[in-house]
Amino acid sequence: MNEPIVKEEVIEEEFNFTFKNGEYVEVKQEEIERKPENLLEKEVKTEAIDIFEKIESDDEFSKDVPKVSMMKCEICQKSMAKKLLILIKLKIDQTVLSDFFEIEGSLEAIPPYVCVSHIQKIIDDNDGKLKSAKTPSEKRLRLFIRKNKKIIRAKTASRRTCQICQTIKDCSGLYKIYSKSIRIVLMIGCILRGTHSVEQAMFYVTNEKGDTCYLHCKETIDMIFENLGVRNVGEFLKSTPLIMLGLMDIAKKIDSNFTGGQFILAFRRLFLKNQKFESNL
């Protein structure tokens, strides 16, 4: 008996409602048109809530932002990107490392990884001193240095161009940015600093090459904090949508479809990425 009523409510499209004073009330169309700033405020608040409740499962960022493979160095027990570590496969190499360092972890771990910096120190301190190696330990060390010099050279050979400052740098100092939203946030920072025009920003956002210096991530974070008058990410998340209107005006010039919710999520991702990078320095 109630079925016709239910169908009529489902297909109704001419009314807008909001939750106010404990109940849903109708918002007249002319009120929405008369106060467009309310739309942005509602949009940012709604999307921010949804985003932070489901941040780990967000489709756009789960596919656009690469997962960084983190491993632990068995000498110092610090976690870092796998590309900054070397896998120690041979017992003879484990013996050499044990001669030079106090092992906080265990080289018996499977697989044991060690910081490139530890191995580089052994090379710097001993390379060129073992031309006439005679003892078994000296011969082990000479082989260790010869082999790992090639490994480190291969790891550091790859260099790319930062798409913001056009400087050629080691890949270890670059962030491969796949997310269009994070690129837009970075360009907001560049425009605020006066280093890029809107046209240059649009080129960067649409360019398939996303290599970017970590330095620019920090510069953008600081510039956005300064623009909003906040000191940290906690205060940023408490910023009102009206305060963010200036930043959104810039973003809309780069991409008219960019939303306040996307800005909040992208900035948070950028902040966490930069924080992780700085903790590994």
Automatic annotation (TrEMBL):
> Which residue intervals define the domain Lin-15A/B-like in the entry?
159-278
The processes (GO biological process) annotated in the record are: negative regulation of vulval development
Q: Which domain of life is it from?
A: Eukaryota
The signal peptide stretch is none
Task: Give the protein name, as stated in the record.
Answer: Lin-15A/B-like domain-containing protein
> What is the organism of origin for this protein?
Caenorhabditis nigoni
